Amino acid sequence: MPQLPKVGVLVRSWDVRIGVTGQETLEAARRAEALGLDAVVVGDHVTFYGFGNDGLVTLTAIAAVTERIELRTSVYLLPLRHPVPVALQCAQLDQLSMGRFVFGVGVGGEDPHEFESCGVDPRTRGRRADEAIAILRRLWSEDDVTYAGRHFQLRGVTVYPKPLRPIPILVGGRSEAAWRRAGRLGDGYIGIWFTPERFATARARVREEAVAAGRDPAHLSFGMQFWCSVAPSREEARARVAAAMEATYRIPFERFERTTPYGTIEDVADFLLPYVGEGADHLNLIMVQDSLLENVEMAAAVRSAVHERLGASPR
Asked: For residues 41 and 295, is the Cβ–Cβ distance under 8 A?
């Protein structure tokens, strides 16, 4: 039987002004754990076209009300922050969750004003991410860290507490630069808006970069993130996910449609299987349903359908 992929669901953070309370977010996370989903996934922005949600804040709250489920950022915009306070926040979250935290990071850039608002030149975001990853790893395992980079300089910095265990860092992105970063600095890779063939290319390139850096690619994790929607008909599901994605990205849905699963539970599961065949060991689902709880329930149903198609016994 092929390896069964982990399936996570994105749980939206709270904003009472738009009708999502903190209690609803936490209830959805608890429901995800109860239904057997493998991970709760959260996004991260400071001011993406005016809207933000801090991924580490959201996961800290979720960590306090769950016990077993994996906690992932996908992805945290690391270049917008200084790595020293981020190192502390991640370490505290990892200890609180007893080692359930997986740090997915990316460089963003879809809204350059978000970077300008944080005093960061968007042209420097890749190099900032590279330096920050190196600094995080050292602060999590060493004391008196000194670092001289182009964007960050540290002299004798120690951060306690340290993580419960080495926190996995997965790198998200669609570019060659992201593939290099994942292979040379990360513990894995997260793709988005790729066909199965493009995902296979990305996976191969990340593994090549790992080998070039003297690292063992066998230890890397590879995943994909998908916006998706489930409904009795493909037309209904398409309309729902199209509206949500166009409102978020301000780009016509046709640009995303080829790589966005929608339809019945079976339609979505069938769409995801080729990615598993190309080596995806985890799938993050951004469900677009009528409520946070329905998002979780439909993600769990998709997980069951994917696993059954791969030969697992129904739960």
From this structure: no
